[in-house]
Amino acid sequence: MSVPDLRFINRKIAIREIARALELTFGADGNIHCWRPELHQNRDRTASVGIRKVNNTVKCFGCGLGPFGPVDLVMSVLGLANPGEAARWIAERFQVPQHAAGRHLVNPPRRICQYGSETEIGVLVRSGLWAQLSRAAHSPVPVFLELAETNPETKSRGVQISYRALARYSGVVSPNAVAAALRELQEIHWLTIASGLREFGPGPVRDTSNYLITPRSDELLELAHANYARFRDDIENERKLRAEARAQRSKAGRRT
Fold this sequence. Notes:
It contains 11 helices and 8 strands. With 256 residues, the protein is of the alpha+beta class. It has a 4-stranded antiparallel beta sheet with strand order 5-6-8-7. The chain has a two-stranded antiparallel ribbon with strand order 1-4. Strands 2-3 form a two-stranded antiparallel sheet.
């Protein structure tokens, strides 16, 4: 008996579509109204559940619920205690690959370090965030790391660079692709765009923006650890699903 691929569900099925399948209500700004309005003073009149596309999660900034991936969201909204039930609910409504019985599950190699010993790209890679970024978003990362200068007063690290130069160094030619890549890096708190500020780089510049890079920001590290924990939870929940499938096969065998 096969089991739903939880990692596929949590990474490939857009959580916005899961919310629609759950018949949650969307606000005018694209946020979702909280499914626990009793936890809000105004019963969440203004939608407060934000969607983070980069790691496919939602979080309510009003009552603090989340962050939830697709499986956790279904469990929370429907009041399910078993992730297997939530996975099967999703698999009934979306096309989800199935794991064949007996396939070996591989644990992530080791925990993300809390104390800064990981390289700045290593934090992204080992947490699984790198795999969730688009290829276009990968390209500017080493460029920013190589060109970053440190402000001696604020100790912040930044790059003053034009779109044209960023495209040339990163190999991302399309301005729209560059803009999309920068949005992804902002969304995970790896980068902040500070246009109009001239903190970094001497001399006059034209058509440039200032980018503050924060590859070890508290928000990014929190996201990295949460993403890594989801990866481990997916494996553990898949093991539980397989155990349930074995128990069902054994029960069916005894009946015959």
